[in-house]
Amino acid sequence: MRRLPTALLMFIAGRSAENRIMEAVRRAGHDLTLAQARLLARIGPDGTRLGDLADQAQVTKQTATALVDRLEAAHYVTRTPDPADGRARRVRLGPRALELLPVARAEEERIEAEWAAHLGEERMAQLREALGMLREITDPYRD
Length: 143
Known about the structure:
Layout: H1 6-27, H2 34-40, E1 48-49, H3 50-57, H4 61-73, E2 77-82, E3 85-93, H5 95-119, H6 121-138
Antiparallel strand pairs: 1-3, 2-3
């Protein structure tokens, strides 16, 4: 059996976590698609421009607009003027998104606890440190 690439191993673990978080959110009564949830996850605390959301989610601006339209209609996001550019608008988390955040965060904590129990605290700390270091060279949106 061939040795799986590290990137694939990270993807498998990440996909598992994402699936669990989505299931917890759905159990809490939020009917979101994975694409909508991925877009929501990229909205910054001060809101994010639609074009930036599209870039980060690796979708066209047209697709991001359609997703945001649906999210706005369901009160997951709001659009507000961008204080830095009067012509632009920022997408911000709306009331329904703020309701689901504690659900998602709680599932994230359960996952972290399970992984730490499986790996041991020291290995879990090393994994977090290594992934944080990799983020420095792999995440163009880390700021």
